[in-house]
Amino acid sequence: MLNPWLVIPVALAYLFLLFALAWWGDRRADQGKSLISWPGIYALSIAVYCTSWTFYGSVGRAASSGVGFLPIYLGPTLMASLWWILLRKMARVSKAQRVTSIADFLSARYGKSTLLGGLVTVIAVIGIMPYISLQLKAVSASFQALVLAVPEHKAVPPVFEDTAFYVALLLAAFAILFGTRHIDASERHEGMVAAIAFESLIKLVAFMAVGLFVCFGFFQSPAQLFEVAAADPQLLRLFTIPDAKAMGDFVALTLLSGLVIITLPRQFQVAVVENVSEDHIRHAAWMFPLYLLLINIFVLPIALAGRLAFGPDANPDLFVLDLPLGAGQSALALFAFLGGLSAATGMIIVETVALATMVCNDLVMPALLRLAPSHLKDRADLSGLLLSIRRWAIVGVVGLGYLYAHFIGQSYALVSIGLVSFAAAAQFAPALLGGIFWKGGTRAGALCGLSAGALIWFYTLLLPSFARSGWISGAFIETGPFGLELLKPYALFGLSGFDSITHALIWSMLANLGLYVAVSLVSSQGTLERIQATMFVDALKPAGESSGGRFWRGTAQMADLLALTARFIGTENAERAFAAHAAERGFELSAMDVVDADFVAFAERLLAGAIGAASARVMVASVAKGEVMGLTEVMEILDEASQVIAYSQKLEAASAELKAANERLTELDRLKDDFVSTVTHELRTPLTSIRSFSEILRDNPDLDLTQRQEFLRIVVEESERLTRLINQVLDLAKVEAGSLGWDIRPMDAVEVMEAALAATRRLAQDKGIVIEELLPKAPLQVLADRDRLIQVLINLLSNAVKFTPQSNGRIRAELVVRDDGILFTVSDNGPGVPEAHHEAIFDKFRQVSDKQTGKPSGTGLGLAISRGIVEHLNGRVWVESQPGFGATFHVLLPRA
Amino acid sequence: MGRSVLVVDDETNIVMSLEFLMRQAGFEVRVARDGEQALDEMAKQAPDLILLDVMMPKRDGYDVCQTVRANPEWKNVRIIMLTAKGRDIEREKGLALGADDYITKPFSTREVVERVRQYLS
User: Fold this and answer.
1) Closest residue in A to B105 (Cα–Cα)
2) Nearest CA of chain B to the CA of A836: how many Å?
């Protein structure tokens, strides 16, 4: 027994020493002379894995189940062989993405999902609660063992008389001092790592000291110890190979501990977040297993010696202290106590700092960003806020651990409590390992798997622990809830014969992994998610996507970006980091008003270190006017977004329309050009005759009278032709432009037809042609413009006269009422129109008979004008004809 | 024997005026109303010069010009194209096909006579 007034000052002095070491480590880091550049420090810091559980609990476990303590160290040892691939990848990704915790890591991998980050945080906080309680329990029990003659750790003392409560307060304060002294961008705690490594060293030396003392102080040699133990059949059992059932548990625990060596928040913190060099991982891969081997060598000897010394009823968890104490070795006992204290404090400090970071970055900040964004924007300096969030988170986490220890932990051995936490942390493994090796893993898959695994963990491990402690009715353990045998938490769906941890592990992992894979296969990834998946899975690929390959659209002012960053990490830190980054890229910070993509990405990473990836993204987006996009993101958007494809199709369609319109315009232009050219030709032809004969008349005043008369007649005739042509061109232009004056009203079609006939009868008679008229007696009301209609009919009749042969030509004019209107028909027995030209003859300057009968004396505009007029009158004009059998022109107009 | 000119045009009045002008200038004149007739006349007897309209039924002036130039027997026949289409491209096309000259309608009667004389002197 030791005087508590010796133990307490020694313990406090030791903690102060640690703090001084941490402070010095941080100072050195700031000066660029890092304490932790030696890979051994890294390996020792990973040995934070060995907590009071190892220090006290392994002996307890070994004393009751022999080699059963081993899988907890075998798993990580096996896993360490994969670190060069696994851990290196995680470290590289984390560095690139400024990951601050495992919650951040998973959130970032699955599209910077705040939901996933929050879920991981909640699971971690609840899951780690028993683990923290284990440490508190161990420290207070070891303290009591040291200072009290008769340990009374079975009783539940009132809170204020509970050693564990004061231990919790002390450790919370200590964790706050270590982990949240300042907030920096990298979220590294070099001083803390140095202190933790030192603690690992102390606990190893202390434990080995006790082991050596036991082997060589109590007995002559380890060989003698085993000899003596082997004589006791109960103890002999402890170092024999386990049977088949125990073998199953052995394998399960090996697997479990192999997983949690990377998924426990504190392991993630020291191994991934605090990693300063990938090269350290290579060394740690053999150093850490060596550490485990060394610290485990004396577990069995101490357990056997304890059993031999104190009998089967003593609490084996405290053999490490009881053996030196029993032998009167107070100094060694105190050293062992410090070793245990190191184990416990190391775990609590790193674990609470890791959890506090998670709570702050993945739970509180996203919630604040969502619930009170304006509040965040108004505060000038948020680093203070962040620090207090983390401090309260540490107090909360330790507080939860204390409550668990106080109310529940009394009924369990150390190892059993720890394993409950292990099973919880193992739930992160599928999403984590899938996340870095399988691009197909989706956010939905991770959420589903994690939720299912956590629920099963809660139901099969945490809830029963509440029941066992009497806080809820334990009936459901024995008979299942509502009497449903299949749902018994220790024999879910009838699976029995396993340890409760193995049982929970089987079901939770089955559900977790199964849902993760299944849901991932059926769900799809968002754009950001897909990019992040690629970044994580391809992290070790050489060239790849560096964080520099970013496009940033829009503009951000340097001042805004700096102010934003300063609010979270402090003005001085922000300015220093910005200046360093600018210098690295060869810029003068003060000369940069508007910053480029790279700088925005840099600021986002800086912020991610302080508030997590998801929150940092939101904050940066609020300053950057525009969007921060990765190169891959752009590629993926192009690749995936169907609306972009649809848009480009629309664009294509629009450009096709434009092209068509352009072609139409070109065609119109060409037609106009042709028209002008044709009109020019048509105008020049009569003009040529006029000019020629005028000049001939001028130059030959002595021409005889007959010839003179003939030439003058030609001049007059061609002038008339010219006039007619000009009129028709103007007419056509008017019809086409719609600027012709119209007088449309009901009128008698018979009378109109007769008027047209009267105008052309003379022309026909000159050629010896008789026009046959088939007109109804009674008037037929038609809706038309009289003058225009007469113009059309005259055109058709004169065309008929023009094309019918001399003397035997025959023309028929008809007027018929039809259902759909009044039909005017003019037929002739001329050469007819080939079918191919039935449409074309209505075009401008189309004179079908051009190449057959010589040039007719027309302008080639008559039918075009006629069609324009008829269409304006809502009618139709068309021709029916076969070459050699005459032609029949129809005009159909609406009835009045 | 006097020089001979073949006037080819589908416009009766234009043919009449050119025929008058050529006769007055002392040339022997034959006429054709389209491209086919023109080549028929050529086949009968090649003239010294052709006044050739472009826009004609059946075979147009370009066609006739090309056919004439394709026959080495007619390599000395002068061709002056006449056209009412005044665009440069038509003028160039005519010259490219082997026409010696190109006159745009309406033309000055004195100029036509002068040009024909030039080529036949």
Assistant:
1) A688
2) 18
Radius of gyration of chain A (CA): 50
Superfamily of domain A4-426: Sodium/glucose cotransporter (1.20.1730.10)
Q: Which tokens hold the place of A828?
A: 């002739």
B87 touches chain A (CB under 8 A): yes
Considering the four listed CATH numbers 1.10.1060.10, 3.40.50.2300, 3.40.1280.10, 3.90.550.10, the one that applies to the domain covering B4-120 is 3.40.50.2300
For A854, the closest of B24, B57, B110 (CB atoms) is: B57
Cα distance from A880 to chain B (closest Cα, Å)?
25
From the options 1.10.287.130, 3.30.750.24, 3.30.420.40, 3.40.50.410, give the CATH code of A642-736: 1.10.287.130
- What is the residue type of A319? F
What residue spans define the domains of chain B?
4-120
Q: Which of residues 716-735 of A touch B (CB under 8 A)?
A: 717-718
Nearest-CA distance B2 → chain A (Å) = 22
- Please write the tens of the pLDDT for every residue from A136-160: 888 888 888 888 755 555 555 666 6
pTM of the model: 0.58
Cis peptide leading into A4, omega within 30 of 0? no
Phi-psi region of B31 (alpha: psi -120 to 50; beta: other; left: phi over 0): beta
By C-alpha distance, which of A744, A806, A756, A739 is closest to A781?
A744
The complex scores an ipTM of 0.94
Residues ≥6 apart with Cβ < 8 Å to A541: none
**Per CATH, the architecture of A742-893 is what?**
2-Layer Sandwich (3.30)
Write the pLDDT tens digit of every residue in A599-640. Answer: 777 887 777 777 767 677 767 766 665 554 554 454 444 444
Q: A 638-697 residues with CB below 8 A of B?
A: 677, 680-682, 684-685, 687-693, 695-696
